[in-house]
Design a protein that fits this description.
The complex is a heterotrimer of chains A (530), B (525) and C (423).
Chain A lengths: L1 E8 L3 H12 L4 E4 L11 E5 L2 E4 L10 H6 L9 E4 L3 E3 L5 E3 L4 H11 L1 H25 L10 H18 L1 H12 L2 H6 L5 H12 L30 E4 L2 H15 L3 E3 L4 E7 L2 E7 L4 E9 L3 H8 L9 H6 L7 E8 L19 E3 L3 H12 L8 E5 L14 E8 L12 H18 L3 H4 E7 L1 H8 L35 E3 L13 H18 L1
Parallel strand pairs in A: 1-2, 1-12, 2-9, 6-14, 12-18
Antiparallel strand pairs in A: 3-4, 5-8, 6-7, 10-11, 11-12, 13-16, 13-17, 14-15, 15-16
Chain B lengths: L9 E4 L3 H12 L4 E4 L11 E5 L2 E4 L10 H6 L9 E3 L4 E3 L7 E3 L3 H11 L1 H25 L15 H9 L3 H10 L4 H8 L3 H12 L11 H14 L5 E2 L2 H15 L3 E3 L4 E7 L2 E7 L4 E3 L2 E4 L3 H10 L5 H9 L6 E8 L10 H4 L2 E4 L3 H12 L9 E4 L14 E8 L9 H17 L5 H4 E7 L1 H8 L35 E3 L13 H13 L4
Parallel strand pairs in B: 1-2, 1-13, 2-9, 6-15, 13-19
Antiparallel strand pairs in B: 3-4, 5-8, 6-7, 10-11, 11-12, 14-17, 14-18, 15-16, 16-17
Helix pairs in contact in B: 1-10, 1-18, 3-4, 4-9, 7-8, 8-9, 8-14
Chain C lengths: L2 H16 L11 H4 L18 H7 L4 E5 L2 E6 L3 H10 L1 E5 L4 E6 L3 H8 L12 E7 L5 E11 L2 E6 L4 H7 L6 E4 L5 E6 L3 H7 L3 H4 L6 E4 L6 E4 L8 E6 L4 H11 L5 E3 L2 H10 L43 H10 L3 E8 L4 E9 L2 E12 L4 E9 H5 L4 E7 L4 E9 L3 H10 L1
Parallel strand pairs in C: 3-13
Antiparallel strand pairs in C: 1-2, 3-9, 4-7, 4-8, 5-6, 6-7, 9-12, 10-11, 11-12, 14-17, 14-19, 15-16, 15-18, 16-17, 18-19
Classes of the chains: A alpha/beta (530), B alpha/beta (525), C alpha+beta (423).
């Protein structure tokens, strides 16, 4: 039987980061990936001859510079491309765009409301304040108030005192920020519907939270981790897409001696006295491991790999009630040329930051309510990413790729399945929404592909098609992620750790869950030795 | 014009139950107090009126869940005629097949009920109710007393102490408490239960009176909060004579303590001199002077309309104008010539608080409809048959049915004039699914739309609690940070209504705590 | 506007410069200064003031700076020459990027009393006053100058724009607030010979204005509002005029000032002069309470030694409660000015009092008049009490980090310096 210090299930970014960290510390690490190649959802696929589109284009990504530095990714060629702003196109033909420069941003806002233009710096100030505090927590294991009693009490008192002594107003600001809905919080700064809708919309993309839902305002925070120009912060994506970042990380891991094995599906984990001992692969091989880390979501990790009866009572129930429910469908279009958007001025730079249609707050709220009720969206909110604007090599000359996030699309419909007719209808809706603003869109299409959440579950193994591996709502963040009592990446099963985005800090920072889980393992190892 | 007769130690605006209680406590401490109300009766939303001759009903508020015994004793309410017709009323979740769930709030009994109706949920019910009760008890410590004001005095804040209290809860419970705080009621219910009916009823309990649905994050906290308030009271109860009679008792108690109650006195302006509130002027021009003014009108309206925004700093005005008060309810009161027949009803059920909320989604859908200014397709509601406990409210053998429909839009699409009948029919049709002979027994009825509740009881936006009871508008943030200790930023002006801590409901706590704050902060007259 | 148009326009104005008192009016272009509502903001990154054409004619260095989003000259010809003009003769500058608000209505006075730290009080028509406004936490939102145009109309010139705050502060008042920044150009004329220049340009009444007063003039039939205000001291005048007329007025003043060695002066020289005056500036020394600055911190009026501009005991005004608490607690910072021994420094950092870190330098410059490096900073009140040696973190132009002794200086530094020289 093969024996190794640590096995990581799943070669996603988190898995690879964890592997590299553990290998750096001298552990013997094996990564097992079910599919034929690393990368999961981030892998690129050929949509039409010459069109390489990411299966899923993430618009909100933050890759901590600390990790890039730790693995010297810059010297391996990691370059980030900055994408400006983003645009919302509204029903009446008006638009709102984001700009990185403060003055340009204020001028843009002034087109909609001169008053709001002056409220912008105040908004930026408050967002930066919240973001600084959150950012400081990304690369550490969550503090669990219920775990360390004496330390915990001191910690809590300390935190509380810090906040109060700064300014009494601060606590109110923090409370509002973490408890209000996007719509309510933004309404405290802005009066223009266009401004509110755009900012709310771009925060919501990829999440299962509606603009009217309390605690949604916290979704604004990731955008402000970086960018100090005073305008709408840049969005950064790796040149070559997420695939490039994944490839680089797997190179790093391999160079550090990690073995990455593809086409290796783990079917079972054997326990001895609540201690993970070894893994069984689909081909019957058994591998013994000191530590097992799972880069799969919490449900697949615990509900698929273990016998339920072997887990503590209540834990299975907790895990199975983690809210994981896909809300986003993805459509990719290969276009022979850029369609002409009649209402947008030529050469608008914010286009590379994504184009939202149907992002009016009221419309988004309705789409979200339909999703709650398991209805197919009648008028969804869509965000079009156009990766070819920054990276023309992804398509043949002049061609473009539209990678569209469609919200909110339920995993399961209340009256049936996602039949071909239903899918076609959804695609028709999307096309109509775009054609309304770009009449020649239909003529440009060379190929198209739709993935509803159910497809993402089938193709890529995301439970219920939830790409965020558990809703990023406040009750499932920080010490509540994935479930209370297991937020320190560990689990009731000794030596079995979770390192996927099902743990803190979720999608707030790429690779951070993996890095933190590895750090936690090394800490337990050290304390054992002592 | 300091007419000697119009010079008081304290003026209380609004003779709702909180205003009455605040005035009584002040008078009890020897302050010369006048209580002014714009309408021609006292009690505010606590009122009993005729639906038609001889059929009396609590027009608006119809149940007491958290009225504290302390206030009852302090003000000697029993002496002035307060008699509870019913105490510890059970809650009944109505089932279409007659398999109703009747919960009394008594652990053992409820567990056996659960075992009978929803065997798969029985075990979890025990766990759930024990936890909720523990959380409620923890919270209730902070609900029955004034909270330190974050805005002004940092050093006094006991946040760190609260953290300590939390630690005492024990790891497991603390974990679920911290999980519940930001959760939606639906996700908590999904974790514990399977039975649709039970989940529906608990979901309605969580959001009734709030502008929220059970899927809204924070609704689990609303539930804990209400349970916490209930811990301070004496269970679901109903006074003889209805809410109006209760108000009369409070009025008599107040007058006995020396409060001068003046109805038909509409305060038009709170007078400010040199940055101090010094008196009020009525619409008829009468001026009352006092160094202390307590307003049980919603804080937003008090400050921005009665006082004027100019007397507050812009940050405060921003805070005040941000106060969200969007939830609204409708009330339907029916006079019946006999008890409607509900399947499988016993005495307990007829005397209980009846809930129609068949599922969590049904409650959520009614909220979604309200958000869209639409009428709910399947309304959810809370009903009481007060005549069952207090037969004198109606002629012999006849009854009244008091129905509260939460999550009703204030501005319904098409206007209330157009859609009123449709709505009443919808509600009655819904009840008929449970009690088929209801229509046959109706003699008369009345319906109060949210705009009517607003004008009749002077509640802005028809909101019973003056301000949504959401996390950022509760505890030390209610009504706004910096004003949480019942004192506004304007010297001499205090709040004593549902808009301040601990919020709405027939609890009397804002009134009592406000009076205590005034007495503590102004030792001399 | 095409490039050719720009060129043509530039030529036109240049032609006029030779004959400033006549000539065709410049065609108004609303997009020139005031933002038009349908212009996509990304389309034009250079935003110019109404005086841009005339200042660009004067620019020999092509050295520009951005102020409130507008491009204005940093140095026209030579920093030293411009500085000298301010000190010895007369300097003319473009101050159009300042924010101008119009406050009017029957309750304008009450509104301003609520907004500002000092009540309007007995301000008469054409009186001016330094104005400060605070947020609820006592920190300055912005500062500026208040003009009383008549009984019910005021103009407030501020350094940063806060229309949202102005509007919210107006809730419940019978007053209206308009942002008129785009409809008014501003010129600053400063230096000992400034009154003579004014007189020669046909603005005789303004030449005799007392400090802090303003008046209407009509040189060449161009209505101009002139005030003897500004941060550069006694002999500074500020002229407010329709954007269309502004280039003409500029040229007129330059022509009239020829005998007085007038010079166009850029922001760089003006900044040296205001440092010598010991004036703390929003955006350079402290941030507005609502600004999202990553380098500057906000300040209360007391931090800046502006206590005389705060009248606490009156009807509610913004910041009252917090400022009251500050007065009783006595906490806060104090503005300090230093002269620093040795050569010109590249950067200055922390202030040390008695060996302990006690504050931070906020801005500094070499003062040619004082022949020394001068600096303004904010210090903790406790640090202020320590007697004796102050030291500063200094980075020299050679890249050496060192601690240098600094000497406490009275503000304004220049007056103090002059006194020393004459002794």
């Amino acid at each position: 039987m093969k024996r190794t210090d640590a096995v990581i299930i799943g070669a996603g970014l988190n898995g690879l980061v964890a592997a590299a960290r553990l290998a750096t510390a001298g552990l013997n690490v094996l990564v097992l990936e079910r599919s034929a190649r690393v990368g999961g959802a981030h892998a690129s696929a050929e949509l039409a001859p010459g069109f390489r589109s990411p299966t899923i284009a993430l618009s909100n990504v933050y890759f901590p510079t600390e990790l890039a530095r730790e693995f010297s990714l810059a010297s391996r060629g990691l370059r980030m491309v900055r994408r400006e702003g983003g645009i919302s196109l509204f029903e009446d033909g008006t638009y709102f765009a984001g700009y990185a420069d403060e003055q340009v941003m204020r001028r843009e806002i002034a087109r909609h409301s001169r008053r709001d233009a002056d409220a912008w710096p105040r908004f930026v100030k408050d967002m930066r304040f919240q973001a600084t505090h959150v950012k400081a927590l990304l690369l550490e294991t969550p503090f669990d108030p219920s775990q360390r009693s004496v330390m915990g009490v001191r910690h809590m008192i300390g935190r509380a005192r810090d906040v109060f002594e700064k300014s009494p107003q601060t606590l109110y600001d923090i409370t509002r920020f973490w408890s209000l809905s996007l719509n309510d919080l933004l309404g405290q700064y802005f009066e223009s519907k266009a401004v509110i809708s755009h900012i709310a919309g771009s925060a919501l993309v990829g999440h299962a939270i509606g603009p009217d839902e309390p605690t949604g305002a916290a979704l604004l925070v990731p955008r402000w981790f970086e960018g100090d120009e005073g305008g709408m912060p840049w969005r950064q994506t790796p040149v070559g897409g997420m695939q490039a970042l994944i490839d680089m990380m797997s190179d790093v891991a391999r160079d550090k001696g990690v073995e990455i094995r593809c086409d290796a599906e783990v079917t079972d984990i054997k326990l001895v006295k609540m201690k993970a001992k070894s893994l069984l692969l689909a081909d019957g091989e058994e591998i013994e491991a000191g530590f097992i880390l799972s880069d799969l979501d919490a449900k697949r990790s615990f509900l698929n790999l273990f016998e339920w009866s072997s887990l503590p009572k209540g834990f299975v129930a907790d895990i199975s009630h983690v809210r994981m429910e896909g809300a986003v469908a993805r459509a990719n279009f290969a276009l022979k040329e850029m369609p002409h958007f009649t209402h947008l001025p030529d050469g608008i730079p914010a286009l590379s930051g994504g184009l939202m249609i149907g992002s009016d707050v009221l419309n988004m709220a309705r789409a979200h309510e339909d999703w709650l009720d398991h209805c197919p969206p009648s008028r969804p909110m869509i965000e079009i990413s156009i990766p070819t604007l920054e990276d023309p090599s992804l398509a043949p000359d002049g061609g473009h790729i539209f990678s569209i996030a469609i919200q909110f699309v339920p995993h399961e419909l209340h009256d049936g399945v996602w039949s071909p007719a239903r899918r076609k209808a959804l695609m028709e809706t999307i096309k109509q929404m775009i054609t309304r603003h770009a009449p020649n869109f239909g003529e440009c299409i060379l190929a198209e592909k739709l993935r509803v959440p159910a497809d993402m579950e089938d193709e890529m193994g995301y439970t219920r098609g939830d790409l965020s591996l558990g809703h990023m709502s406040l009750d499932q963040m920080y010490f509540n992620r994935p479930v209370p009592g297991s937020s320190a990446y560990q689990s009731p099963v000794k030596n079995f750790f979770l390192c996927s985005a099902s743990t803190h800090p979720a999608g707030l920072a790429l690779g951070a869950s993996g890095a933190n889980a590895a750090a936690e393992i090394l800490r337990t190892q050290r304390s054992k030795r002592r | 014009m300091t007419d000697e007769a119009l010079q008081y130690d304290a003026i209380v605006i609004g003779a709702g139950h909180n205003g009455l209680i605040a005035a009584s406590y002040l008078a009890k401490a020897g302050r010369k107090t006048v209580l002014l109300d714009s309408s021609s009766y006292i009690g505010g939303a606590a009122r009993t009126a005729e639906i038609s001759p001889d059929y009396l009903v609590s027009t608006a508020a119809h149940l007491f869940s958290a009225f504290p015994r302390k206030i009852e004793k302090d003000l000697k309410l029993a002496k002035h005629g307060l008699i509870w017709a019913a105490r510890d009323m059970p809650t009944v979740a109505l089932d279409l097949q007659g398999r109703h769930i009747t919960l009394t709030g008594k652990g053992k009994q409820d567990t056996s009920v659960m075992a009978k109706h929803e065997p798969r949920d029985a075990e979890n019910w025990q766990d759930f109710s024990r936890r909720m009760s523990k959380f409620a008890l923890f919270l209730s410590k902070y609900l029955g007393e004034a909270l330190p004001d974050l805005g002004n005095d940092v050093s006094s804040y006991e946040g760190p102490l609260a953290a300590l209290q939390l630690e005492k809860m024990g790891a497991k419970d603390l974990q679920s408490f911290l999980r519940f705080l930001p959760s939606s009621m639906s996700s908590v219910l999904d974790r514990y239960f399977e039975g649709k009916l039970l989940k529906g009823a608990l979901a309605l309990d969580a959001v009734i009176g709030h502008h929220a649905g059970p899927y809204s994050p924070g609704s689990a906290f609303s539930y804990i909060y209400k349970q916490g308030l209930a811990k301070l009271g004496q269970g679901l109860s109903y006074p003889v004579g209805g809410a109006g009679a209760f108000a009369e008792v409070l009025g008599e108690a107040a007058e006995a303590l020396g409060v001068r109650i003046r109805v038909d006195s509409h305060v038009e302006q709170i007078l400010v001199e040199d940055g101090k509130a010094v008196g009020v002027r009525l619409t008829d021009g009468t001026v009352f002077h006092a160094p202390v003014i307590l307003s049980s009108v919603a804080p937003k309206a008090t400050c921005l309309e009665l006082v004027g925004a100019r007397h507050f700093e812009t940050d405060t005005v921003r805070h005040l104008s941000r106060i969200r008060s969007s939830g609204a309810a409708a009330k339907i009161n029916l006079a019946l010539e006999g008890l409607p027949t509900f399947e499988n009803f016993t005495d307990t059920e007829y005397g209980g608080r009846l809930l129609i909320a068949p599922s969590v989604m049904a409650v959520e859908r009614s909220f979604i409809a309200a958000k869209r200014n639409e009428l709910p397709i399947d309304p959810v509601m809370e009903m009481v048959i007060p005549t069952y406990h207090d037969p004198r409210l109606a002629p012999m053998g006849h009854h009244v049915l008091s129905i509260m429909v939460p999550n009703v839009p204030y501005d319904v699409a098409g206007g209330w004039d157009e859609r009123r009948d449709e709505f009443v029919k919808k509600v009655i049709d819904t009840i008929e699914m449970y009690a088929p002979d209801l229509t046959a027994k109706i003699i008369a009825g009345e319906m109060l739309t949210p705009p009517e509740i607003e004008s009749k009881f002077v509640l802005s936006g028809g909101h019973w609690h003056h301000a949504d009871m959401s996390f950022d508008q509760l505890l030390a943030f209610r009504p706004t940070p910096g004003m949480a200790n019942y004192a506004s930023s304007l010297d001499g002006l205090y709040f004593c209504g549902a808009g301040c801590h601990p919020g709405g409901g027939l609890t009397g706590l804002p009134g009592r705590l406000a009076a205590e704050a005034v007495l503590a902060q102004r030792k001399t007259r | 506007m095409t490039e050719i148009d720009l060129f043509r326009k530039g030529r036109q104005v240049e032609l006029e410069r030779t004959n400033p008192l006549s000539g065709p009016a410049v065609e108004p272009d609303p997009a020139w200064f005031e933002q038009s509502s349908n212009e996509p903001p990304f389309a034009r990154h250079v935003h110019t003031t109404p005086l841009h054409l005339v200042t660009s004619v004067e620019s020999r260095t092509n050295d520009w700076t951005v102020w409130n989003g507008y491009t204005v000259p940093n140095v026209h010809t030579h920093l030293a020459a411009e500085y000298d003009a301010l000190h010895s003769n007369a300097g003319l500058s473009d101050i159009s990027p300042l924010v101008k608000m119009r406050i009017s209505g029957k309750e304008a006075v009450a509104y301003l009393d609520h907004l500002l730290t000092m009540p309007v009080g007995r301000m008469k028509q054409h009186d001016t006053r330094r104005a400060f406004m605070c947020a609820g936490n006592g920190q300055l939102v912005t500062e500026g100058i208040l003009f009383r145009l008549d009984e019910t109309e005021f103009r407030l010139i501020t350094r940063s724009k806060h229309l949202d705050w102005f509007l919210d502060a107006g809730i419940g008042f019978g007053a209206s607030v308009d942002d008129i920044s785009g409809t008014l150009a501003g010129l600053s004329l400063s230096g000992p010979r400034a009154p003579l220049v004014l007189a020669e340009a046909g603005l005789e009444r303004s030449a005799d204005l007392a400090r802090g007063k303003a008046c209407w003039e009509e040189p060449g039939r161009m209505p101009t509002y002139v005030s003897r205000t500004g941060l550069l001291g006694e002999s500074q005048f500020e002229l407010w005029i329709d954007p269309e007329d502004a280039p003409l007025l500029w040229n007129r003043l330059l022509a009239a000032g020829k005998h007085h060695a007038i010079r166009p002066v850029g922001e760089a020289a003006r900044n040296v002069a205001r440092l010598e005056q010991g004036v703390f500036l929003e955006g350079r020394d402290f941030a507005s309470a609502f600004a999202s600055s990553s380098t500057l911190v906000p300040a209360t009026p007391y931090d800046l030694g502006l206590g005389t501009f705060v009248k606490l005991d009156r009807a509610t005004f913004n910041g009252q409660a917090a400022l009251r608490r500050l007065v009783t607690s006595g906490a806060g910072r104090a503005p300090v000015a230093f002269t620093i021994a040795g050569n010109e420094a590249d950067q200055l950092g922390a202030i040390y009092a008695g060996g302990r870190k006690a504050g931070r330098i906020t801005s500094h410059t070499w003062s040619p008049a004082l022949h020394t490096h001068i600096a303004l900073g904010l210090m903790d009140i406790q640090g202020l009490g320590t007697s004796g040696a102050y030291a500063l973190d200094v980075l020299t132009f050679e890249g050496v980090a060192e601690k240098r002794t600094a000497h406490f200086a009275k503000r304004p530094l220049l007056a103090a310096g002059m006194a020393n020289l004459t002794e």
